[in-house]
Amino acid sequence: MDGVTVMDRALVDSARTVPGQGKRAAGRLTGIDVARGLAVLGMYAVHVGPDPAKGGAGVLFKPFEGHSAALFAVLAGVSIALMSGGRHPKQGRDRTRVALKLATRAPLLVALGLWLTSLETGYMVILAYYGACFLIVIPWLRASAKALAIATVVTAVVAPLLSHLVRVRLLPRDLLFFAPDLTADDVTSTGLLRAATVLVLTGTFPALTLMAYVFAGMSIGRMDLTSRSVCRRLFFGGSALAVGGYFFSWVATGPLGGMQAVYRSLEPAAAQAGMTPSEFFRLHQTWIHGTPPTTSWAWELLPTGTSYTPFDLLISIGVAAAVIGGCQLLMPRFERVLRPLSDLGGRVLSAYVLHFVAIALLWDESDGDSIFSVPHFVEFSVVALTAAVLWRKFVGRGPLEWTMNKLSSWPKYLGAVARVPAQRRG
After folding, report:
1. How far is 65 from 45, CA to CA, in rounded Å?
2. Which of 73, 40, 72, 42 is nearest to 354 (CA)?
């Protein structure tokens, strides 16, 4: 999304295949927009769809938990890579312009995220954490696909463990502790250092571990996404990574006893609640969000969505890679069918922000669980898809995408020098 995934349309529009190398001619990487559109619908499924824990139709919504947010983050990395040159990273002044553009968008995203949090919808908002990632990623703009892939693996494995070590001393937590999102009051009352700590380490989408998704997306964006063979490798390789992640997590938590260690850490709280540890875990497992409990290292073995454990990160990266590769493969064959999703994905920042505004206007705490239903998911999806199609047809770029682009476009004038023709000598 513009402002979040920072797609440069001119660059995407100019993407071309090379004739005679088994690649399908395509004017745009429209499959990327389709993937964004799927991420939006997945977000709606989580925010207003039925609770999978209650069974029934809600079970069909289980796959969206955790993976939609991860797909957004990986796509952010893809777009940063495309913005910074795609397969051939920009150098010199051109790379400086990209860095300044990211540095400009970072505080804008933080401010927008703080405003959405102030609406008090009860939902977690990721935009401010993207702002932190945009600053962290700047030194990596020149990195190759291989270097970024290595950074992905290292970050996915090391960052959660480092987070655990630091949080044990800085902000230890059990399963029932839930760190709230950063608010504007936190920034003004506790200062920038505290705010930065929340964004990078202790918040609900900590940038330290979120960078694993951004690096993965940048590595994908450095590939030739117009190549069908590359997209097939993404699809099958991503699927294999996700399946492998679940398998090895099962081995670690089952036969190797990791889950029993988690249950032992829950025994006091479970006894107080009159439950078995397994019942207590199932009831509260979504509270792991972003920062796993520090009561046992075994928490880092779980595959739970948005837990930001090593297994969760690798599984979600695999799912995102498979979705991106699959969308790129399907778009040329089913362009007419997938076009509404592409239109929605091209206006994803607006879709993201406005759905929070709609929730704040339509519902309040007294509505309880009644807002989580299949009809509400369908309503949000149909309205968003229809609005995106009409906006693309009659207006063009989304309203927030246009605004973000205008506010961050000043670096393109950096170092611009008017060329004056040299005077001819008689």
Report:
1. 8
2. 40
Q: Classify burial at 115, counting beta carbons within 10 Å of its beta carbon; exposed 0-12, middle 13-18, buried 19 or more.
A: middle
Amino acid identity of residue 422, one-letter, is A
Our separate counts of H helices and E strands in the chain read: 16, 0
Q: What's the distance, CA 189 to chain centroid?
A: 29
CA–chain centroid gap for 338, Å, is 21
In the numeric block, which tokens belong to residue 204? 């609900």
Decide: helix, strand or coil at residue 366: helix
Q: Is the CB of residue 328 less than 8 Å from the CB of residue 321? A: no
What is the amino acid identity at position 64?
A: F
Q: Which residues contact 230 (CB under 8 A, 6 or more apart)?
A: 223, 224, 325
CA 328 vs. chain centroid, Å, equals 18
* Cα distance between residue 255 and residue 64, in whole Å: 27
pTM for the full model? 0.90
Query: In which residue ranges of the chain is pLDDT below 70?
Result: 1-28, 366, 415-426
